[in-house]
User: What shape does this take?
Amino acid sequence: MALPMASSPAHHHDGLLPRMLAPDAHANAAPLLALRDFTVAFRGESGPVPVVRGIDLTLASGEALGIVGESGCGKSVTWLAALRLLGRGAVTSGEVLLSGQDITRLSERELAGIRGGRIGLIFQDPTSSLNPVQRIGTQLGEVLRLHRGLRGKAARTEALRLLDRVGIADAARRLGQYPHEFSGGMNQRVMIALALAGEPDVLVADEPTTALDATIQAQILDLIRDIRRETGMGLVLISHDIGVVADLCDRVAVMYAGRVVETAATQDLLTRPRHPYTRGLLAALPTLDGPRVRLTPIPGTVPSPDAMPPGCAFAPRCPIAIETCGGEIPPLVLAAQDQRAACLRLGETATQPGMPLSTLAASAFAEAGA
Ligand SMILES: Nc1ncnc2c1ncn2[C@@H]1O[C@H](COP(=O)(O)OP(=O)(O)OP(=O)(O)O)[C@@H](O)[C@H]1O
Ligand code: SF4
Ligand SMILES: [Mg+2]
Assistant: This one.
């Protein structure tokens, strides 16, 4: 089989060089990855049901962007649909720009060259990317052949290096084994090795550590951090755990009910969150620095896509909602320098900026009778 166009090994050399140039050299360059008014709907019995409702996100070269939000907010669907991994039941619109090129317009074959090539993917569940009936070495070899044109001894040497890099001891023996012979944490490392095999410009990691116990989770996150430092690879880290994201990411986008409701540099988001939903997530965070506070989960649940409230989708749960909130969908607007939020009452959330966020969010929700 001929190599898919987009997986030509040449791009990796092109891809490595720009990262080493001064940022100014790319002041006018397209961002590495960008979603523009991206939507996803699933075909339902009575017409399409919108699930992702107009997302704009930008990832600069080498940047780490975290995507957080409760279960069902559309975090996974956004990225799976962007890479056309959801099948025919999902209908998308908008643009997914990779270095300025809209990949939604590519043929399936061209896109297959990008997945696992310029864009690496890892998921919560290794069984979704690892083939249970193929040896690890075969699976790594396939990626190395497809995306980097490596075969034979060169491929084996690189496969050994990759397993070693992700912390798998006795790599030569391990290459001959099947996924079921590895523990959960080890399979996660294998999945990272597979993603790295394509020398990605960006790694999209969807809950990569959620299924693992705390110690292994910390090890895997450290591994991702180290690899990013070595390679300059960009990262999109999807997690329901804002603590995990804050640890690893330069910027965070908070999703609620299929939209981005707040985005900011991580430090700003943690110290002066502006959207009531972000404040609620932070108040429910179990690992805040400083004195332990009572955890305050956000009352209520994420609305189902087929029963979306009119106007601001967070209104039924929002402690500061007013009548107008039900009337219009708040646009994502500039709330502070380099910080955007989609709330009609940003004037309200700008007060008390110096207050410790745990106290602030907890008291806001206590007022709401939580
Ligand atoms: N194949 C599908 N068909 C119809 N609806 C779907 C499909 N996949 C996901 N959904 C719905 O889309 C919405 C967003 O789901 P998604 O999996 O993106 O959430 P998430 O934010 O990743 O949550 P989690 O933290 O649980 O992974 C949910 O309401 C979900 O039920
Ligand atoms: S728009 Fe209204 S309901 Fe929505 S988050 Fe802001 S204050 Fe709350
Ligand atoms: Mg998900």
Observations:
- The two ends are 60 Å apart (CA to CA).
